[in-house]
């Protein structure tokens, strides 16, 4: 099997984006990978990540899943995912630990990303998985997303905020026990209840 066939097999196995280590595991040497890149057979997506040159551009969701070893879909992107807003965000909104600014910059070089830097003690609170355009990504659940709306109230458009809160109240899948629990842990409980009590009892 020639080097092109080996490289093609790697993509068939791992998907549209492959790491340099995937090629090495398949039996290619580092200089072989460089040579395939120089020949234009593979293109660099980011340092150490490649796609086949003649293949379609990988979906943004796939690039995120490969490059984002830390990061959770949150706020505007999560609101859109749950149908709490019909405004499709121009950039992916991602929660990351505060120490991950370099990772964010690397992803921003490839796709539009807006980072929310989150304290470690609440970073994983409400984390779940979601399917975005056929790609599985970590995303905050409904309740964490609504708590984030209150936490980042000043960063959100009024219309988006109001529509999201009303959509959550009307959602049959809401979990008010988790909403209260998260809100207390995130320090937004009293702010949230002032609004929620009116809507829930209205």
Number of helices: 11
Runs with pLDDT <50, length 5+? none
What form results from the Cα inertia axes? Answer: elongated
Number of domains: 2
Strands side by side in the biggest sheet: 1-3-2
The pLDDT mean sits at: 90
The N- and C-terminal alpha carbons lie at a distance of 69 Å
SSE ordering: HEHHEEHEHEHEHEEHHHH
Strand-residue fraction?
15-25%
What's the helix and strand layout?
Blueprint (H helix, E strand, L loop, with lengths): L2 H12 L3 E2 H6 L4 H10 L2 E5 L2 E4 L7 H8 L4 E2 L1 H7 L10 E6 L3 H8 L4 E6 L1 H4 L3 E6 L2 E6 L1 H10 L6 H12 L6 H11 L2 H13 L1
Parallel strand pairs: 5-6
Antiparallel strand pairs: 1-3, 2-3, 4-5, 7-8
Helix pairs in contact: 8-9, 8-10
Output the keywords.
single chain; 202 residues; alpha+beta; Arc Repressor Mutant, subunit A; 2 domains; three-stranded antiparallel beta sheet; three-stranded mixed beta sheet; 11 helices; 50% helix
